[in-house]
């Protein structure tokens, strides 16, 4: 996946917004205000950071050399995914998982707002 494909896939999900909160080199995707993906646009090779459940994160890192422990300010359950080392299908699956994980932790009120979109 290239940056545009990655961006397009994320932005089509319900309730997703994108921003450059840090600087013009880091693109962040949020669902209902909660971050589920970020991409450093100046990284070569291109990599994205995605949320993941701890057990799944460990298994993915053991199975795929293109997935390593992720970085985020909270340092909780993120994977760094090198897009040139894994398939598009796996990348989409990881994006979906990150999105679904964040949605599952939204409050009932916010989930209702998301469903209404």
Q: What characterizes the major β-sheet?
A: 6 strands, antiparallel
Q: How are the strands of the largest sheet arranged?
A: 1-2-3-4-6-5
Q: What sequence of helices (H) and strands (E) makes up the elements? A: HEEEEHEEHH
Which structural class do you get from the secondary structure elements? alpha+beta
Number of helices: 4
Average pLDDT confidence is 90
Overview of the molecule:
The model has no long low-confidence stretch (mean pLDDT 90). The longest helix is centred in the C-terminal third of the chain and has 17 residues, at 88-104. With 117 residues, this protein is of the alpha+beta class. It contains four helices and six strands. It has one domain: Aspartate Aminotransferase, domain 1. It starts with a helix and ends with a helix.
Output the keywords:
117 residues, alpha+beta, Aspartate Aminotransferase, domain 1, 4 helices, 6 strands
Question: In brief, what are we looking at here?
Answer:
With 117 residues, the chain is an alpha+beta fold. The protein has helices spanning 3-11, 54-63, 88-104, 108-116, and strands at 16-19, 26-31, 34-40, 47-51, 67-69, 78-82.
């Amino acid at each position: 996946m290239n940056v545009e494909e990655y961006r397009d896939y994320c932005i089509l999900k319900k309730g997703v917004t994108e921003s450059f909160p840090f600087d013009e080199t880091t693109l962040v995707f949020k669902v209902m205000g909660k971050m589920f993906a970020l991409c450093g646009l100046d990284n070569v090779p291109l990599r994205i950071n995605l949320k993941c459940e701890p057990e799944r994160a460990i298994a993915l890192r053991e199975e795929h050399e293109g997935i390593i422990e992720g970085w985020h300010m909270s340092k909780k359950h993120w994977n760094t995914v090198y897009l040139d080392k894994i398939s598009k299908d796996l990348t989409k699956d990881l994006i979906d998982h990150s999105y679904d994980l964040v949605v599952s932790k939204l409050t009932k009120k916010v989930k209702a707002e998301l469903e209404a979109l």
